[in-house]
Amino acid sequence: MLTVVLLGIIFAAAFIFTSKSNAPKTATAPLSPTPNTVTPLPTLPGTNVAIVFCGSSQLSGNISTEGAAGSIYATLTLTNIGNSTCKVILGNTISAIFDADNIDAQNVQSGQTKNFSLTPQEKVYSQARLPNGPQCQSGIVQKQISFFYKAADTSVEFKPTSANQLKLTVQACTSPAEKTTIDIWPLSENPVNQ
Prior knowledge:
This protein is mainly β. It is built from 1 helix and 11 strands, in the order H-E-E-E-E-E-E-E-E-E-E-E. The protein has a domain at 56-184: Immunoglobulin-like. Strand 8 and strand 9 form a beta hairpin. The model is unreliable at 1-45 (pLDDT under 50). Strands 1, 2, 4, 5, 7, 8, 9, 10 and 11 form a 9-stranded mixed β-sheet that branches.
């Protein structure tokens, strides 16, 4: 009888084992893949890019002149000719260079300097007033004058837009004791209207 009981247990075990192995199998997909790298969140184009100061090769300076009531007004236009936005410094960043000791250049306004982002082809402006025929007792002589934007290790010369004018000239007195004063407005976002 022991043999019958043992055969019954073996038979029962075999039945249980085969019924489990014949059960339908289900595949379980992982709940979420485990990536090896972290993907950053999307950002707007250019928002993570630091805007740097404009270099000399990114800027073009032009001068156009117009006479009015004993003065010549020179409009100075600084243009971003580069392909990317860069910064310029607004304020008293325009200087004049001339070859005479009796010419004084002065800033008309004392303004605070300010960084300004200049997009491609965008312009900023200044103006200079040069006397047209100063009151000289000693006579008049033409002297060359150049205007420059100088800021943040950048220097750009403003060049006349007229094809027949290579350099800008100012009328100065022949006597070193008689002074000619040139007024320079700060570089700004908008054209100067005087």
